[in-house]
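User: Can you model how iron/sulfur cluster sits in this protein?
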Amino acid sequence: MAVDVSIVPCKSYDADVCRTALTQALAPFGGLDWVKEGMRVVVKVNLVSAMKPEQAATTHPMLLCELTKMLRERGASVLLGDSPGGLYTAAHLNHVYDVSGMHDCEAAGAELNQDFSQSDASFPEAVCAKKFTYTAYLDGADAIIDFCKLKTHGMMGMTNAVKNYFGVIPGTMKPEYHYKYPQISDFSNMLIDLSTYFKPRICICDAIVGMEGNGPTQGSPREIGAILAAESPSKLDLLAAKLIGLTADDVPTLQAARVRGLIPQTAEELEIAGEPERFIVPDFKTMPAQSSVFFHKAGTGAIGKVVDKIMFQALTPCPKVKKNECIGCGKCAKICPAKAIRMENKLPTIDRKACIHCFCCQEFCPKGAMGVSRPFIARLLNQ
Ligand code: SF4
Ligand code: SF4
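Assistant: Here's the modeled complex, given as structure tokens:
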């Protein structure tokens, strides 16, 4: 029976250890035998922000170096790219490359994307993203590898192979997509549409050290000790979720994938090469996704709307400024798609009624000063 997901041990970011683990993880899918001389392989990495490799927010450069060497040995050229939040410009991306250690990958033979143009896609088969704008460097790919990082996520519960595709939307346009798809099910379907459109040849997950707690940028590094690989991003995510104590019920992109028939009901039904039980971290600190059973504006009729409003206020987490950590830079106000943040006396003030709970402000705050406040009832229910 064909393998859905492979999982192998990888205890450190030592070059030899990474190389061995990558080779083992890819083996059930024919290794890199599909790579032909002269092929252009684009590796879509996770470079969410200008953060150091040891902060565990970005795909680790050592893994990318080893993958680059493996691809180059087969005669392929390798391009690494992503569009984090903020400006999609050379100045911003080169700063992200500097901090996240991507220049090591250049030394290994990869190019770092310097094409900051955009392309438009028409995708009539999509469930949500029938038309979208994306980073044009992907157009030159003969094959795409999705190289994600396993982390918690304030809005989506988890970010991994499917969520990594939000990085194909140019940075400054991301807030528009949050606004265009305010319901979590639509946002999740949009992400699956993107991953379907770009058809990764293989997905690889850096779960050597993941991020727990206040992810995707302000959580804490947590050792998991594994590398995963799969041809399907959603199947990879289903097994990755299990490692950090989540099921398809906890992650909106997995709920949507299940409805679309892309994954089985549970991780136990996947055909797995490896022993996932060895890598489960029982006390991994997760973040509940926004409610999967209660969507904003979902009520119908007068009573339904009133109930929705009460439930929404009682259950929905909100961004909250940590005043003693805020430096008053105003980036949160600039990025907020709902224009719900106003700077007053160098401190952000959040209009709760206008907020659409996308957590862009939390994701892009350079100081981790935008926290998540969970209402008492929500905390109680999550006990
Ligand atoms: S982005 Fe962060 S540090 Fe800057 S104003 Fe907003 S909360 Fe404060
Ligand atoms: S305040 Fe934060 S969470 Fe609310 S809409 Fe603005 S960016 Fe999103």
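A couple of observations from the model: The pocket of iron/sulfur cluster (ligand 2) is lined by residues 319, 336-338, 340-341, 350, 355-361 (CB under 6 Å). DSSP finds twelve helices and 15 strands in the chain.
User: Helpful, thanks.
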